[in-house]
Write a structure and sequence with these properties.
82% of the residues lie in helices and 0% in strands. The chain is mainly alpha-helical and 471 residues long. Helix 9 packs parallel to helix 16. The chain is globular, with a radius of gyration of 22 Å. The C terminus is likely disordered.
Length: 471
């Protein structure tokens, strides 16, 4: 098992990469939604949601399978990379062919949607060749972090230079592909220096070994993406594209504040996988995951709901009327997504309980799909926001029940302190609003973060105030 210093080092690298990767979109995302407008951005969100399903067909569960395999079979990096990527290329060709058929038949006769479907689908090509999963599985995150930063810089430069009007909508997926290719080149350079590179290959034995388990995990991933994407698709076919754009922009903003969840999964999945492979091994990593999740999620939810209207106006602009209420409805997904990721995507998969994983995410997807089909035509984007959160909580609850005899840690015990401090933070901000009603929203964000982290430091078990009282 990794030492705590190694965990902190890897977490720090991922945090730096994630912070840079989110700071740059703070420049591009508001710029894009303002330049494109609600209708064209709605088409982009609609096309991205559809191609998301085809991208899963191209890589159905290969990433978690590869991370787990790399974590549990050290010194076989070249073999693992060649065999898994060989199968991924085969599936990518199949997925691109299906996407081409879909574009010809079901693109609603809109040329912009058709172009976006094709360009977003081409993102499957660099994704099929990626070796990020191999480095993450070996707990070597620095190359992945550095490559991600360079890719984001390339994306930002192309978007700011090339997107000047709604007619330049096609530059956004082009910039994404260019950034992915640059990231791929960086990771491959490091893999070459470590002698991990080999030509992708497919053998009968590797196909039989990789595909069945990956398909099972992939089916679960498709179910997972269902409650992330299907609402956008139903909105696209039942509501105006302007409303789709409003929801897509708000949903993107919500994912921006959830940026810490993917890095937690990248860091803790291989660690918990190693613990699961060792019978009787201590599972302190699970407690640490839930502690970090609680520390980050609750202040974001409490503070975000309080400041939702001015914050969304700052990022999206005044033309996205109603984004504040949608953002408030989506914010509980910060906690729901983190719990679903932990109990289902990490714990169940790490313990090789693939059938239970499929049941959990399929149940959430079916709940999401059925509720969206009924309520989106009636209440539109607001219904989609509420149902998204309910579905994630359902996945987390079902997966936790499956793992009830081997949870490793309890979320309840990790929640009392951050909830209490978050409520105190919100009360402080409400008082501040009464005296400084016209202050900039980012001042409130900064003050709230300072109050929360300060109270955590003072009132923690080893905090200054506690040590003073105990003397």
């Amino acid at each position: 098992m990794m030492t705590r210093s190694s965990i902190k080092k890897n977490l720090s690298l991922l945090v730096v990469a994630e912070v840079i990767g989110k700071i740059l979109p703070l420049l591009t995302f508001p710029y894009i939604v303002r330049v494109l407008g609600q209708e064209v951005y709605g088409k982009f969100g609609f096309a991205s949601s559809i191609t998301g399903f085809f991208m899963l067909l191209a890589s159905p569960g290969f990433i978690p399978y590869g991370i787990r395999l790399a974590a549990q079979t050290p010194d076989q990096e070249k073999k693992n990379g060649a065999e898994i990527n060989g199968v991924r290329i085969l599936f990518t060709v199949f997925a691109l062919a299906l996407l081409s058929v879909y574009t010809l038949l079901f693109s609603q006769g809109d040329p912009q949607v058709s172009v976006l479907l094709v360009l977003c689908g081409l993102m499957m090509v660099p994704d099929a060749l990626s070796l990020d999963w191999l480095f993450i599985g070996r707990s070597i995150v620095a190359p992945v972090a550095f490559a991600g930063i360079l890719g984001q810089l390339a994306y930002t430069g192309i978007v700011l230079a090339g997107v000047r009007s709604p007619q330049h909508y096609w530059m956004i997926p082009v910039a994404t592909i260019a950034g992915a290719v640059l990231s791929l080149a960086v990771v491959y350079r490091v893999a070459w220096s470590r002698s991990w590179l080999a030509w992708p290959r497919i053998t009968q034995g590797s196909f039989r070994e990789i595909v069945p388990t990956s398909l099972l995990l992939g089916f679960a991933s498709i179910m997972s993406v269902t409650y992330d994407k299907v609402d956008m698709i139903i909105l696209g076919y039942s509501r105006p594209m302007a409303e789709v754009g409003l929801y897509a922009a708000t949903y993107k903003l919500m994912w921006g504040v959830m940026c810490f969840l993917p890095l937690l999964s990248k860091l803790f999945f291989p660690l918990i996988s190693k613990s699961a492979a060792c019978v009787g091994a201590a599972d302190g990593d699970s407690h640490l995951y839930l502690k970090i999740l609680g520390f980050a999620a609750y202040p974001i939810i409490f503070g975000g709901i309080l400041l939702s209207v001015p914050f969304t106006q700052l990022i999206l602009g005044s033309q996205y009327v109603g984004a504040g209420s949608l953002f408030s409805l989506l914010l509980p997904n910060v906690l729901a997504g983190g719990l679903a990721s932990y109990y289902a995507g990490i714990k169940l998969v790490a313990h090789n309980r693939n059938r239970e994983y499929v049941i959990a995410v399929a149940s959430g997807a079916l709940l999401n799909l059925s509720l969206n089909l009924v309520f989106i035509p009636i209440w539109g984007a607001k219904a989609a926001a509420v149902i998204t959160c309910l579905s994630q909580f359902a996945v987390a609850g079902i997966a936790a029940w499956f793992m009830r005899h081997d949870l490793g840690a309890s979320m309840l015990g990790s929640s009392i302190k951050p909830i209490t401090l978050s409520m105190l933070m919100v009360l402080s901000l409400i008082g501040m609003q009464a005296f400084l009603p016209s202050a900039h929203v980012m001042i409130f964000v900064g003050v709230g973060a300072s109050i929360y982290t300060g109270m955590w430091f003072l009132l923690g078990r080893h905090g200054l105030l506690i040590r003073y009282v105990m003397r």
